[in-house]
Amino acid sequence: MGLLVKTKLGELNLKDEDVIVFEEGVPGFEHLKRFVLVFPEETYPIGWLLSVEDEEVGLPVVDPRLVRVDYDPEIPQEDLEKLSVTGKEGLILLSVVTIPPGKPEDATVNLLAPILINPTIKKGRQVILYDQGYGLRHKISEELERSKAMV
User: What is the model's pTM?
Assistant: First the structure.
């Protein structure tokens, strides 16, 4: 059965299985539990984690390994268990992107708090990586240069 949902990107026709449940919400939006992940052609590789409960809430996200090739965070066991997995394999790993208005060249990516999604059971979680050397705002242009030098 289709579900017509208004989102930050307009109306989307979704199926129940498209919805990803964040049991604890995401920081800043703890009251919102149901999201959908879309990757529109116009913004790819940046995708959107859109709330299906509040049409004003949508977070731009990217696979952090596209920005920082050596990004390989250690995920706390407790967080893996809450996603019903024992390791990172098979999980979708995303980071929130911040793009200052009118200054896309100053865009940053949050490597400190990645979003993990278990696509099999449609469950998601944002985790905080303490003591791993990652920050809240890594400038994308600098990370791309750093990564290019490594490859």
Answer: 0.91
